[in-house]
Design goal:
This protein is of the alpha+beta class. The protein is built from twelve helices and 17 strands. Bound molecules: aspartyl-adenosine-5'-monophosphate (AMO). Aspartyl-adenosine-5'-monophosphate binds next to strand 12, strand 16 and strand 17.
């Protein structure tokens, strides 16, 4: 009969003989007794080896294993008041599944500060640290929560192409690829497709997928590939309906992470503060005033920029709000698909900002064919380049609006992480294409 296979979470005193599997995190040889810390997904467990009671060959082999080797150990579970789990395993046999080379390219438990580049170059080791892995457990939970709240609100999940003949968010940030001799582009956003779907009856959709931006900027909030959570909904009365929907979604996700992610938040030593509701709805004009009062001389029409967003964030924090909308941006600064605010130079657009940083943008779309074509021309675009998209507006298109949220930005702000790269397993930026 084979022994029960247990892990550091399920093993109990009284289990008798068990098998546990994991990485040799650390070995301490104290003469008459040796200790091995074995790590698995859930934590660590102590293997105790009293020299006199253990087969000499086994003792010699197991206590000289290089750190991070992978083993499968069989032994008896004994109570112990010296360990965190209150138990230890006395090995009677083991299988070396994979011997680790030494020295390691970087340590797993060493307390030395390792540069981010070194960590990212050796991400497979970096991710062995529980506090690094916890971020990705939370990201996984975040996607689950998004699926729950979207399904609850009758949104269907869709998957749109990531290679296409045209972009939606401006030519400068497109990556081109060779598509059988023709030029194609990686999707910057599912914008055109999610809007086209509004003409089909799939009138509430969402997508969680990679988006690619050829932005040659090395900042702590930009990467060239991120996960975009997009939503689009029809039959809206105004962009207020879209903002209300986002507020409900974001609140659900943050609460869910706080409650159901508690185990990982503990590993990270972080606490999530759920932002106060309702999320205030500021206008661009109001923010411009805040920014000017804060000493940054921006003019009407200027982008608030990182510095402007930060000033608004500070003012809002003083008022007790970490999450707020900034609406009605100048129409000239917004893409062609955004609806203009009649008779003004503003538009039905908004950003959602969290602690002084944009995490989402969206708005009401121009669904009237003639006005959409006019808007394209005004912004210097050739409507003929968007034929497949415009066709969907010619044969019956409901009023609609939507948003795109960079899920890494949301996670980074929620956990107060210093860099968006912390929330991406294998980040891509202008100087990183590997691993
Ligand atoms: P936008 O271009 O503002 O809007 O992008 C939406 C959100 O995506 C995230 N994001 C990024 N995250 C990391 N690195 C980047 N380089 C990067 N660029 C964008 C941000 C941003 O708020 N189609 C519209 C959305 C819509 O109107 O539905 C769009 O893509 O969190």
């Amino acid at each position: 009969m084979s022994n029960a296979v247990k892990n550091s979470k399920t093993v109990k005193v009284g289990d008798g003989i068990v098998t546990v599997k994991g990485w040799v995190q650390d070995t301490r040889n104290l003469g008459g007794i040796s200790f091995i810390v074995l790590r698995d997904r859930f934590g660590t467990i102590q293997l105790t080896l009293p020299k006199k009671k253990i087969d000499p060959e086994l003792f010699g082999e197991i206590t000289t294993l290089p750190r991070e080797s992978v083993i499968s150990v069989t032994g008896e579970v004994k109570e112990s008041n010296q360990t965190e789990l209150g138990l230890e395993i006395i090995p009677s046999g083991f299988v070396l599944e994979s011997k680790a080379d030494s020295p390691l390219p970087m340590g797993v438990i060493d307390k030395v500060n390792v540069e981010m580049d070194t960590r990212l170059n050796n991400r497979f080791i970096d991710l062995r640290k529980p506090e690094i892995r916890a971020i990705f457990e939370l990201k996984s939970l975040m996607v689950k929560l998004l699926n729950e709240v979207m399904t609850e609100n009758q949104f269907s999940q869709v998957f749109t192409p990531k290679m296409s003949a045209s972009g939606a968010e401006g030519g400068a940030s497109l990556f081109s690829v060779d598509y059988f001799g023709k030029e194609a582009y990686l999707a910057q956003s599912p914008q055109l497709y999610k809007q086209m779907l509004m003409s089909t009856g799939l009138d509430r959709i969402f997508e969680i997928a990679p988006a690619f931006r050829a932005e040659n900027s090395n900042t702590n909030r930009h990467v060239t590939e991120f996960i975009s959570f997009d939503g689009e909904m029809s039959w809206i009365e105004s962009m207020d309906d879209v903002m209300a929907m986002i507020e409900e979604i974001v609140d659900y996700v943050i609460r869910g992470l706080k409650e159901r992610g508690a185990e990982y938040l503990k590993v990270l030593d972080k606490e999530i503060v759920v932002p106060s509701r309702p999320y205030p709805r500021l206008t661009y004009a109001e923010c411009l005033k805040m920014v000017n009062d804060g000493g940054l001389p921006l003019k009407d029409g200027d982008d608030l920029g990182t510095e402007g967003e930060k000033i608004v964030g500070d003012v809002m924090a003083e008022r007790g709000y970490e999450m707020y909308f900034i609406a009605e941006y100048p129409e000239e600064a917004k893409p062609f698909y955004i609806m203009e605010k009649d008779g003004t130079s503003y538009s039905y657009s908004f950003d959602l900002d969290y602690k002084g940083q944009e995490i989402s943008s969206g708005g009401q779309r121009e669904h009237r064919y003639d006005l959409l074509v006019k808007r394209m021309e005004k912004l210097g675009l050739n409507p003929e380049d968007f034929g497949f998209y415009l066709d969907a507006f010619r044969y019956g298109m409901p009023p609609h609006g939507g948003w795109g949220i960079g899920i890494e930005r949301l996670l980074v702000k929620m956990l107060d992480l210093p860099n968006i790269r912390e929330a991406i397993l294998f980040p891509r930026d202008p100087s990183r294409l590997s691993p």
